[in-house]
Amino acid sequence: MSLPFLIAQISDLHLKAGNKLTYGVVDTLGALRRAIDHLNASQPRPDIVVISGDLVDFGRPDEYAVLHPELARLNMPYYLVPGNHDVREHLLAEFADHVYLPLCPEAPLDWVVEEHPLRLIGLDTTIPGAHGGRVLDSQMVWLDDVLGRRPEVPTLVVMHHPPFVTGIGHMDREAFINGAALEQVIRRHPQVERLLCGHLHRPMQQRFGGSISCTCPGTSHQIVLDLRPDAPAHFNLEPPGYLLHRWEPGQGLVSHNGVFGDYPGPYPFYDAQGLID
């Protein structure tokens, strides 16, 4: 019997160089180190890690130079997609050892990895110089073709921007472009188990094209859950988190929301007399 396959998803690292705090408040480097230590120590340990964008804060080479050795501490393969805070050229220059990434920074960094029980597709939703996301018509054609080649293989699509309206006003002001067209593509390919997204620094889920689109918490700071249309752009230091996706043939994919950090417990439900009163 094959063992379950575990995919950890982390997102929105927003790493800075020179031990600088992000937004003058957040120790994103310390948070990333704690996240990596947590994943490495997990039992059972994830088989792979996918990182759904905003790897660094300003897309600078010195930020990626700090990020690369930290991610190299992961005791499992990891895969990257860019977010709106990333710069393709600098990302590719630093992670030239990631052979699944395309070589041209002028085009979207779309990729496919075939070597795991689930097929991985990375979809670059960034618009250089902008906050919002999109998928170009040429990417739609590429994605439709790639998915059509192996319709029998369960597939994860990893991307930064969620292709749906979240209700958090300041994050929705730059809406996802071509979301309806992307949904039509996904609907034609029922082997797509999840669209794994970041950007929102919170866990969310929505039905999308017959599949599920979900977002991942941030490894450090979180977007405040404020559903007012005029909500200001603000964050807080709720517990940092990740998603853990468990695939088992015949059972499908189950997605768990986990948190990083140490908390009281675990405590037993039962003692020698039964359920503890």
Automatic annotation (TrEMBL):
Residues 7-203 form the Calcineurin-like phosphoesterase domain. The keyword Heme does not apply. InterPro entries: Calcineurin-like_PHP, CNP_phosphodiesterase-III, GpdQ/CpdA-like, GpdQ_beta-strand, GpdQ_catalytic, Metallo-depent_PP-like. Pfam families: Metallophos. It comes from the Bacteria. Keywords: Hydrolase, Iron, Metal-binding. Belongs to the cyclic nucleotide phosphodiesterase class-III family. This is Phosphodiesterase. It comes from Pseudomonas lutea. The lineage of its organism: Bacteria, Pseudomonadati, Pseudomonadota, Gammaproteobacteria, Pseudomonadales.
